Amino acid sequence: MSDPRKPKPLDDAVLHGAHVLIVDARYHEAIADELVAGAAEFLKAAQVNIERASVPGALEIPVAAAIELENARRAGRTIDGIVALGCVIRGETAHFDIVAHESARALIALGVERHMPVGNGILTVDSEAQAIERASRKSGNKGGAAAEAALVLIRIARTTAEKRQPWR
């Protein structure tokens, strides 16, 4: 099996000054903290502005993101992209499947319906050990990967087809 792809820094003037909202689920706090740290490091390196909203669990992430988008619109502020971060660990019931599926479905719907760049960094794993490995900035850095995904989509939204650069 190959090593997972690590996020690569994006120093792109098109991205400088973008406003990115991180929405993180606090259910697994230590994992959430590592995901947020990875995303924030990546976004700061790309010279974007960061806002943050925290919610109890993964199902609340899409709702909080939609509320924050509406609040920003009403206040005349721009949110250029969203980074969704959290962790869902498989248990003994079907709750895992519902939370994993519905949080992803709602984030995709939010992105498509509002033409909003969304980086989904909600981990769906079988164990806490898997979550720690994927969240760690030294190994998986899925927070950074979700931030990278959001920035790639922001770049697409901000550039015309003639000027668009390949993402890698």
Concise account of the structure shown:
By secondary structure, this protein is an alpha/beta fold. The chain contains five helices and four strands, in the order βαβαβαβαα.
What does this molecule look like?
- This protein has a four-stranded parallel beta sheet, with helices on both faces.
- It has helices at residues 29-45, 60-75, 95-114, 128-135, 142-158; strands at residues 19-25, 49-55, 81-89, 118-125.
- It has one domain (38-157): Lumazine/riboflavin synthase (Rossmann fold, 3-Layer(aba) Sandwich), CATH 3.40.50.
- With 168 residues, it is of the alpha/beta class.
- The chain is globular, with a radius of gyration of 15 Å.
Which features does this protein show?
single chain; 168 residues; alpha/beta; Rossmann fold; four-stranded parallel beta sheet; 5 helices; 4 strands; 46% helix; globular
**Strand-residue fraction?**
15-25%
Poorly predicted ranges (pLDDT <50, ≥5 residues)?
none
Distance between the termini: 22 Å
Q: Count of DSSP helices?
A: 5
Number of DSSP strand runs: 4
List the helices and strands and how they pair.
Layout lengths: L18 E7 L3 H17 L3 E7 L4 H16 L5 E9 L5 H20 L3 E8 L2 H8 L6 H17 L10
Parallel strand pairs: 1-2, 1-3, 3-4
Helix pairs in contact: 1-5, 2-3
